[in-house]
Amino acid sequence: MRVFLCVYNNFTVAVPMDSVSAVAVNGGPEIENTCKVKDDCISLPVMFDNLESVTRHSIVLKSKVTLLTTEIECETEIPDNMIFPLPNIFNSSLFSYLFNGIVFLAAQDKPVLLLNSEEIIKLIMKEKKND
Question: Can you give the pLDDT at residue 54?
Fold first, then answer.
């Protein structure tokens, strides 16, 4: 599976490329990192309580939802046999449902969590419904 890797403080997020329609560099003034969901946009640094992270890229999913994220460090291929279910310890984390796998890569000193794009879309729809 081809993914984009975005590094956060304690983990790395892998965004599956097959769910992505476009990537943009955020230029100009810093995008406000104060709200988790706004319109069809979700701030991953805010969601992951990583407010000190700088939002460098926007990843537009095929569903038209935009993910604001840290810098995309690279794109890479992760073999399916290297993706494991999340350990039960992650169930206590509020955002664990946003991930559908974990990968341990030798090049990364942090676990790589595979983003579940469908759950992100559900979150956006739920937030819009509550507005």
Answer: 81
DSSP 110: S
User: Measuring CA to CA, which residue among 123, 15, 113, 29 is closest to residue 69?
Assistant: 15
| DSSP classification of residue 32 | P
Rounded Cα distance between 25 and 100, Å, is: 26
Instruction: State the amino acid at position 24 in one-letter form.
Output: A
The pTM (predicted TM-score) of the whole model is 0.85
Query: Is the distance from CB of 26 to CB of 57 less than 8 angstroms?
Result: yes
**Residues paired with 61 in a beta bridge:** 20
Question: How would you list the strands of the sheet with 112-115, edge to edge?
Answer: 72-77, 2-7, 12-16, 112-115, 99-103
